[in-house]
Amino acid sequence: MKKLNMAGQPCPLPVIEAKKALKEASVGDTLTVIVDNEIAVQNLTKMARALGHSVKVNSSSDGRQEVTFTVSEKPAAAVRDSDHGGLVVAVSQKSMGHGDETLGVSLMKAFIFSLTELEPLPEYLLFFNGGAFLTTEGSASLKDLAALAERGVVIGTCGACLDFYNLKSKLKVGAVTNMYAIASTMGQARRLINI
C-alpha cells in the first residue's frame, strides 16, 4: 500500500499526484491519499470512479481524510464517445464578449439557451472563474442548464472558483470539479468552444 500526504496542498495537486501514482500501480494495489479539505475528497472520489477504481473515504481524528483507491482492471474513462459528438464548451465569464456588460449578460443567456437546441448536444459544459456565477443561485441560465443536465450533458464548475467567490453553498446545477479535470477534458475534446 502506498500513501501520499497531500494535506495542505491546494487542488488540483492531490488529484495530479494521485493520478501519477495510480499509473505505476498494478491491479489490486491500494493508494491512500491524505487530504484536509472536502473539495479534494470530492475530486479524488470522482477521479477514482472515472478511472474505474473502487474508492473508500475515512476521516481521522485530526480533521484529515484518507481517500483510498483500490486499482481495478477497468479501463480509464476519457471523454465519452457518445451521440454528443465530443463537444466541450468552456465558459470563463458570466457575460459574453467585450463591451456593454448588460448586453454581454443577455448574450450569454441566449448562448446557453441555444446550446439546448444543438444537435448533437455538447458532451461537457465547464465553468470557471466568472463563469461559476452561471451555475449558482440567482443565475438566469439555471433552467436551461438543468435541462441540459437532464439530457446527459456533464456540467462541472471549478471548486476553487466557487470558494473564491463564496459560491460553494449556492451551486444549483452540475457538480464541483477541479482545474486538472477541466484541463484534461478540454485537452481530450474532439471539438472545443472556449468563451
Biggest sheet, strands in spatial order? 8-7-6-5-9
Structural class: alpha/beta
Number of strands: 9
Helix content class: 25-40%
Question: What percent of residues are in strands?
Answer: 15-25%
- Separation of the first and last Cα atoms: 43 Å
| CATH homologous superfamily classification of the largest domain | DsrEFH-like
* Highest-level CATH class of the largest domain: Alpha Beta
Largest sheet: 5 strands, parallel
Order of helices and strands: EHEHEEEHEHEHEHE
Enumerate the spans where pLDDT stays under 50 for 5 or more consecutive residues: 75-84
Question: Could you give a short description of this structure?
Answer:
With 195 residues, the chain is α/β, with parallel strands linked by helices.
Question: Key features?
Answer:
195 residues, alpha/beta, Translation Initiation Factor IF3, Hypothetical Protein Ychn, Chain: A, five-stranded parallel beta sheet, four-stranded mixed beta sheet, 6 helices, 33% helix, elongated
Structural topology:
Elements: E1 2-5, H1 13-23, E2 30-35, H2 38-51, E3 54-59, E4 65-70, E5 87-91, H3 101-115, E6 124-127, H4 142-150, E7 154-158, H5 159-164, E8 175-177, H6 179-188, E9 191-194
Parallel strand pairs: 1-2, 5-6, 5-9, 6-7, 7-8
Antiparallel strand pairs: 2-4, 3-4
Helix pairs in contact: 1-2
